[in-house]
Design brief:
Blueprint (H helix, E strand, L loop, with lengths): L4 H4 L10 H9 L3 E4 L11 H8 L15 H13 L9 E4 L1 H13 L5 E6 L4 H7 L4 E6 L11 H5 L6 E7 L11 H13 L3 E5 L25 E6 L12 E5 L2 H13 L5 H10 L4 H23 L5 E2 L7 E5 L5 H10 L6 E4 L1 E2 L13 E5 L4 H19 L2
Parallel strand pairs: 1-11, 3-4, 3-5, 5-6, 6-7
Antiparallel strand pairs: 2-8, 7-8, 9-10, 10-13, 12-13
Length: 396
């Protein structure tokens, strides 16, 4: 049997590929601390579940392909509150931010095209780009530089006749980097000057910790034809299982092309859209409390990393991830060893080896991503396990 050459170029998710090893570790009586996947343990606002309970339509019908009015209006109102005015004909509701990315990339990229993405980046970006027949042109960043990439000379050096778009997460997954307003505007300027789309994955927008302004590409004026924003309820409201996101663009032609995809897949879940719309009723106190919690967890993780010799990292300014280069030969081998052979009083640790977060070959081999989505005490214990694990691994 023959398979698509495009799918054969794709790899398994590094966040999930070690799950069988973790399952076996649990089977063998170990407790596994999970820092490998961005699944928050913050309680989902009760408004979601109340909306599900109160859903009483006699027939569970198809939703409109662009989304139910309640969900679209909730998104429009949210952006209005952050001084990024949009209208209902600029929003397409999707099955999570992932489908929004797929739709945007499928509308923009062709066989042989290129898209510029700072690395390390969310590995599924590579999967979605590869399935269009295009390829990623990376801008390599380093922890010593705070993973910053918004430098005109570096970005423009990656642009060629095949370049169609620039894409990045802000705040960053996996780096935690937060772009300043000046950096955001610079990236938009470069895109406009070179006739490129600029895709901002902004699903972590609410989570910044250093007093930085919560910025969206949609707040910048004069880039209407270039800007595409990806958003989701998954992280903002700790509602990953709802699978509701959106693609937002003021570019009418792009919107119309994206609608073809939306109509082709019919619609997104009706009930989950109604329930997700209710999430937008939560007030600023909710976000303040969640930010404080994540900030405390970040501080606990960074304090733990400071105690480990040879680790190189940049303290994150947003989202809920930390990238770290470890003093080990290979992060994948180390992860498997931690799950199969290591424990400390029955405890071990799971993280995400980071080589798949890079497009440049042989980069990130000894790096890992950790998600601080478990409670503060468990993060402190996780850093103890990482320290002891590194020492034991290197003393084998």
């Amino acid at each position: 049997m023959k398979y698509s050459s495009k799918i054969e170029k794709c790899g398994l998710s590094p966040m999930r590929k070690f799950a069988p090893y973790a399952a076996e570790a649990v089977k063998n009586g170990k407790k596994v601390y999970h820092l490998n996947i961005g699944q928050p343990d913050i309680a989902t606002p009760e408004a979601y579940f109340e909306a599900v309970k109160n859903f009483s339509q006699p027939v569970l019908e198809y939703a409109p392909s662009d989304g139910v009015p309640e969900m679209i209006n909730a998104v429009v109102d949210y952006y209005g509150r952050i001084d990024a005015p949009i209208n209902s004909k600029q929003v397409l509701i999707t099955t999570g931010g992932s489908e929004a990315l797929q739709i945007a990339l499928s509308c923009i990229l062709d066989e042989g095209d290129e898209i510029i993405i700072p690395e390390p980046f969310y590995p599924n970006y590579s999967t979605f780009v590869t399935l269009t027949g295009a390829s990623v042109r990376p801008i390599t960043t380093k922890p010593e530089e705070g993973y910053r990439f918004a430098v005109r000379e570096r970005v423009e050096a990656c642009i060629n006749e095949r370049t169609r778009a620039i894409m990045f997460t802000n705040p960053g997954n996996p780096t935690g980097t937060v772009l300043t307003e000046e950096e955001l505007r610079l990236m938009a300027d470069i895109a406009r000057e070179h006739g490129l789309f600029i895709i901002g994955d902004e699903v972590y927008r609410e989570f910044v910790y250093g007093g930085e302004k919560l910025m969206s590409l949609l707040q910048l004026e004069g880039y209407e034809d270039n800007v595409v924003v990806i958003d989701s309820v998954s992280k903002r409201f700790s509602a990953c299982g709802a699978r509701i996101g959106c693609m937002i663009t003021r570019n009418k032609e792009l919107y119309n092309h994206a609608m073809k995809w939306c109509q082709g897949r019919l619609c997104t879940s009706t009930i989950d859209q109604i329930a997700s719309a209710a999430l937008y009723s939560v007030g600023p106190d909710y976000f303040e409390a969640v930010r404080r919690e994540y900030c405390a967890r970040k501080d606990a993780l960074v304090e733990g990393l400071k105690k480990i010799d040879g680790v190189v990292y940049s303290e994150p300014k947003g989202a809920f991830y930390v990238m770290a280069a470890l003093p080990v030969d290979d992060a994948e081998k180390f992860q498997i060893w931690m799950l199969e052979e290591f424990d400390d009083n029955g405890d071990t640790l799971m993280f995400t080896p980071a080589e798949s977060f890079y497009k440049t070959p042989h980069t990130g081999v000894n790096e890992i991503r950790m998600a601080y989505v478990i409670n503060e005490a468990d993060i402190t214990r996780s850093m103890e396990l990482l320290k002891k694990g590194i020492e034991a691994y290197n003393n084998r």
